[in-house]
Design goal:
Number of domains: 2
Structural class: alpha+beta
Number of strands: 10
Strand content: 15-25%
Helix content: 25-40%
Distance between the termini: 72 Å
CATH class of the largest domain: Alpha Beta
CATH superfamily of the largest domain: Glutaredoxin
Shape: elongated
Low-confidence stretches: 1-10
Length: 224
């Protein structure tokens, strides 16, 4: 017969911030000096973690993030990196990337040796590793609200086109109060919010949208 030991304590699971909640504030040491997340209020922030410095997949990702940094800046987005490495490790790795690949890393990288920020954002997934952060991407809006979260395992690098696409989709949805269909990219038609009454549903087909059904209609956005 199995006997349960009620004195055994279950290890608490990490609390992961959820979409629609306020992004947890923090203060941290980075390669650009000390920062607070709340200092970036008024800007979009992409907070992303990588497992470790001086590793191959992470190196390709840092080069890729650096290459889209100007595009993100145009969109009022601040990149912030993080791993559970020391500040000196970050500096040495960034210098090595510049030396070997000719790429400057323009964004701050958090040195999170005490795992304070990684724990706050649920970046440690014991099924993958207890000492390294998985590849998380947190999209935070100018009001410090968490708007999207994407997770990748240790052995799969991220797609920068998708990072830009999510930013564009979120910003466009906010500006025009619309939704984005699957595979949406800037210039594609967007989804009109569905009607909420039977009368409005009946009227929808006469409103000049691309009408598929009363709950699914699309429209083009104004061109810049």
């Amino acid at each position: 017969m199995m006997v349960w030991n009620m004195e055994e304590k279950c290890e608490p699971k990490p609390v992961i911030p959820r979409i629609g909640e306020t992004a947890p504030d923090f203060e941290a040491v980075t390669t650009k000096g000390k920062i607070k997340l709340s200092d970036y209020r008024g800007k979009w922030v992409i907070l992303f973690s990588h497992p470790a410095d001086f590793t191959p997949v992470c190196t390709t990702e840092f080069v890729a993030f650096a290459k889209i940094n100007d595009e993100l800046t145009k969109r009022n987005v601040q990149l912030i990196g993080l791993s559970i490495d020391s500040l000196y490790s970050h500096i040495a790795w960034i210098r090595r990337i510049k030396e070997k690949l000719g790429v400057d890393i323009p964004f701050p990288v958090i040195a999170d040796l005490d795992m304070k920020v990684a724990t706050l954002y649920g970046m440690i997934h014991p099924g993958e590793s207890t000492t390294a952060a998985i590849r998380c991407v947190f999209f935070i809006d100018p009001e410090m609200t968490l708007r999207a979260v994407v997770y990748y395992p240790l052995n799969v690098g991220r797609n920068m086109d998708e990072v830009l696409r999510v930013v564009d989709a979120l910003q466009t949805a906010d500006k025009y109060k619309v939704a984005m269909p699957a595979n949406w990219r800037p210039g594609d038609k967007v989804i009109v919010p569905p009607p909420t009454t039977t009368d409005a549903a009946e009227q929808r087909q006469h409103e000049g949208f691309e009408y598929i059904d009363w709950f699914l209609c699309k429209k083009e956005l104004p061109t810049k």
